[in-house]
Amino acid sequence: MHDHRRAANPRSPFPYLRFFRILSPAPDREFQKDERRNMKRETLRMLWLGTALAMFGLASIVSPSIEAIQSDKPVKTFKIEDLAWLSGDWETAPGRMQIDEHWTKVAGNSLIGMSRTVAGGKTVFFEYLRIEARGAEIFYVAHPKARTPGTDFKLVKLNGQEAVFENPAHDFPKRIIYRKNGDGSLTARVEGDGTEKEKPQDFQYRPIPKTD
Fold first, then answer.
1. In DSSP terms, which residues pair with 143 in a beta bridge?
2. In the chain, count of helices (H) and strands (E)?
3. Predicted local distance difference test score (pLDDT) of residue 16
4. Please, what's the largest Cα pairwise distance for the chain?
5. Burial of 10 (0-12, 13-18, 19+ CB in 10 A)
6. Which residues 6+ apart lie within 8 Å of 91 measured at CB?
7. Which residues neighbour 127 within 8 Å (Cβ) at sequence distance 6 or greater?
8. In sequence order, what DSSP letters do the residues of 130-176 get, joined into one string?
9. Are 198 and 175 in contact (CB under 8 A)?
């Protein structure tokens, strides 16, 4: 018996076309997958780039802020009361020349001092001194032979019982240093920056004995 249904749907003379139609969507799907992967990579790259730029911009904003905060840190200030150890009556050892130096107690944001050098029974040199607070800064002011105006030396270092006063613009000395020693003696030193002909000098003081 002849099967009309089979005859109505004859086998294609080109079976490879059917095979091609079955397989042809696969390249499209692979292409779409590649596109998605490329888009994902591009998206990640753009996100990374955006994050990097944002971090760079944030750093450029934060960095000046940090510098501003650091620059706003208070400068170390000194209290004139921390120089109270200088108060008293001092003298060098007797000899061909002897120096005596006297400092008042701290009061009214200042110490007042004077120095006298005696040689051969005569006063060969004297100097009026003061240490005073000016706002947050402290200055040592010297008036050699009562000369006015005085010469200012700014307190730049105060470490325990050692004080360093400086005036880089002065010819000599540029630096005056006072130090209270462990044995109760006092050392004063004047020095420059090494370019001047004057040499550094040290003065060793001892407390003047109290008399009744």
1. 128
2. 3, 10
3. 41
4. 160
5. exposed
6. 98, 99, 100, 101, 205, 206, 208
7. 114, 115, 116, 142, 143, 144, 145
8. EEEEETTEEEEEEEETT-SS-EEEEEEEE-SSEEEEE-TTSSS-SEE
9. no
CA separation for the pair 48, 122 (Å, rounded): 86
How many C-beta atoms surround the C-beta of residue 170 within 10 A?
Answer: 15
Measured in whole angstroms, the distance separating CA 133 from the mean position of its chain's CA atoms is: 23
Structure confidence by residue, pLDDT tens digits, 64-84: 444 444 545 556 789 999 999
Cis peptide before 149 (omega within 30 of 0): yes
> ∠ at Cα 176 (171, 181), nearest 5°?
160
Residue written as token pair 């050692």:
162
pLDDT digits (tens, 9 = 90+) for 3-32: 444 444 444 444 443 433 444 444 456 656
159 is written with which tokens?
A: 């470490």
User: Residue 94 has which token pair?
Assistant: 């007797």
State phi, psi for 68 to the nearest 5 degrees.
Answer: -65, -40
Locate 209 and state its tokens. Answer: 């004995």
